From TrEMBL:
PANTHER family: BILIRUBIN OXIDASE, CUPREDOXIN SUPERFAMILY PROTEIN. Gene3D superfamilies: Cupredoxins - blue copper proteins (2.60.40.420). InterPro entries: Cu-oxidase-like_N, Cu-oxidase_2nd, Cu-oxidase_C, Cu-oxidase_fam, Cu_oxidase_CS, Cu_oxidase_Cu_BS, Cupredoxin. This is Copper oxidase. It comes from the Bacteria. Signal peptide: none annotated.
């Protein structure tokens, strides 16, 4: 048994407070918090979902043009209006709509052109989280600013395996507010293998996107400045795909849930009623080798997972997706389809001895809980290049979440422009949840994680904490890939 400081930041309604306590716990591997250790405080922040609104699914973005392998899209960041609270019009942001954005569905090998328009009153960027593209304006980091009224066009060739990625703004110091107001969308990559696999793939029928977010409404408004908390802006209200108090209906078959933690700061501890087992089939960057049966899954801010859950035995019943013990999403099961047998073998990821025994060449410490959020003891400087790495080379990075005088909390560590493999967690094999390609890992206090990182493209990329409040105050560094 190892002693770990368990410290979580919570905000309940508008009040925020720190909770410090020390607990005996075994080491949490692969982001799996043991029951009752890291999340009890965060859970307090979320009200149970009453399931009063039908869940909707974002539209699939239609291309502006498509010719053979070349496809062209247009995305506009704009202001909008929604009704979340009865009788109140809420000012929002959205992509090509009032709130959130459409699903952009690309295929491996496609030559893609996207016209990016900013119709907001403030500067923004369009970042493709998890997409392996050049680290220039294409990646959409804080350097790739698009001013109000401007349109910029990016082009790239999709060169990565099938995965559930996402897009969101990344302007320096403004990311948290813009995402909170509604700028986020899903980006699916399909490839020949994913199209051939036997898996639920009917969008909105048995293959459901779930964008998990939390908000605190102030007089019915999404007022980021009023609720912002540098430690972590945690809401009291769950919102899925932009729907407050959602409930969904599914047939009595195996359904696929593509889950994005699109929250600013919240970590979700996902499970189903009565600990119904489910299969993890994909992580951030693609399919896992073999479907992994589990009953709980931890998803920090920015992380994704694809799971398949079998609803065959629940006709006429309500199965609930939970966050710890709090209802997140009721699923009403109808008897309209039959459960099929699906593939359970997907990928051929090899974590060989070469990777396991390679020396660590880059180390990143993460620290901070209340005020000073630091990577390697520093805050972001756009004129400082923190690391350099050669295009195509694999290097072992060691990410450590250290405890300092402020305390400590879990930090989701994200690197742009790469899908990496977790080599070890505190010297041991990662759990199933971290055995696929990842671009974001939620590292617990005192945890040390080694990852094998390779950048297929060149440019300057960000690496940062994906708690957006921490990112905005500079818990971010830059790597130049040459
Ligand atoms: Cu952080």
């Amino acid at each position: 048994m190892k002693k770990v400081w368990t410290v979580a930041a919570m905000s309940l309604l508008l009040a925020a407070c720190n909770v410090d306590e020390e607990q005996e716990t075994s080491t949490a591997h692969g982001g799996h918090a043991q029951h009752g250790t890291y999340y009890h405080n965060e859970q307090l922040a979320l009200l149970p979902n009453e399931g009063t609104q039908p869940l909707t699914f974002p539209p699939l973005l239609a291309p502006v043009s498509e010719q053979g392998n070349e496809v062209e899209y247009a995305l506009t960041a704009q202001q909008g209006k929604m009704t979340f609270v009865d009788g109140v019009e809420t000012a929002t942001y959205g992509y090509n709509g009032e709130f959130l954005g459409p699903v952009l569905r690309l295929k491996d090998g496609q030559q893609v052109t996207i016209h990016l328009t900013n119709e907001l009153d403030e500067a923004t960027t369009f970042h493709w989280h998890g997409l392996e593209v050049a680290g220039d304006a294409t990646d959409g980091g804080p350097h790739a600013v698009i001013e109000p009224g401007e349109t910029q066009t990016i082009t790239f060739t999709v060169d990565q395996q099938a995965a559930t990625l996402w897009y969101h703004p990344h302007p320096m110091g403004k990311t948290a507010a813009q995402v909170y107001k509604g700028l986020a969308g899903l980006l699916y990559i399909d490839d020949a293998k994913s199209e051939a696999l036997q898996l639920p793939h009917d969008y909105g029928i048995n293959d459901f996107p779930l964008v998990l977010q939390d908000r605190t409404f102030v007089d019915g408004q999404i007022d980021y400045e009023a609720v912002a908390n540098t430690m972590s802006t945690l809401g009291d209200t769950i919102m899925i795909n932009g729907v407050v108090n959602p409930a969904m209906t599914a047939a009595n078959e195996k359904v696929r849930l593509r889950i994005l933690n699109g929250s600013n700061a919240m970590t979700y501890y996902l499970r189903f009623t009565d600990d119904l087992p489910f299969s993890l089939i994909a992580t951030d960057g693609g399919f896992v080798n073999e479907a992994a049966t589990m009953t709980t899954l931890t998803l920090g801010a920015g992380e994704r997972a694809e799971i398949v859950v079998d609803l065959h035995d629940f006709v006429g019943q309500r199965v609930e997706l939970l966050n710890g013990d709090t209802p997140l999403l009721p699923i009403d099961v109808t008897a309209t389809r039959q459960a099929m047998d699906y593939d359970t073998t997907f990928n051929e990821i090899v974590l060989d001895d070469t990777l396991r025994t390679m020396e660590v060449t880059k180390t990143v410490t993460m620290e901070g809980m209340t005020e000073n959020f630091l990577l390697n003891g520093k805050t972001f400087d756009h004129e400082r290049i923190d690391f350099r790495q050669k295009q195509g080379d694999t290097e072992i990075w060691e990410i450590e979440n250290i405890i300092n005088e402020e305390g400590a909390m879990a930090h989701p560590f994200h690197i742009h422009g790469t899908q990496f493999l977790v080599v070890s967690v505190d010297g041991e094999e990662p759990d199933a949840a971290w055995q696929g390609y990842k671009d974001t890992i939620t590292v617990q206090p005192n945890q040390k994680v080694r990852i094998a990182v390779r950048f297929p493209e060149k440019g300057i990329y960000m690496f940062h904490c994906h708690i957006l409040e921490h990112e905005d105050v500079g818990m971010m560094g830059q790597i130049e890939v040459y």
